[in-house]
Amino acid sequence: MYKEGENNSVLIEYLGDHPIIRVIDFLIENRLFDYSKKQIAENAGIGKVTLFKYWERLEEIGIVKVTRKFGKTKLYKLNEGNEVVKRLIELELALADMISEIIAKEEKTKVEKEDS
After folding, report:
1. Which pLDDT tens digit goes with each residue over 79-103?
2. pTM for the full predicted model
3. For a 10 Å CB count at each end of the chain, is N or C smaller?
């Protein structure tokens, strides 16, 4: 039986609660907008120090990209042109479909048991 974690997305639920996964998950869910590193850390539920520990990795492989600069502040968003990002989005959609099917089957079974 599928049991959803506390406000966890399917990526976090199935890939683990790691800071990189949290950042990627936040950026996928909010891919229309750009954010400062501080905003990304806050919204991903991780500390700034933790974000800075992993940020270089995300930039190295092109998961994130700079969208705007004003003063010293840079805004970032998910690099949807990156092949890895495309596949992560596909993975999230596939996992969500799978979970939906599991929940639908469980609900159907529950209704059938109540009717009998």
Report:
1. 999 999 999 999 999 999 999 899 8
2. 0.82
3. C
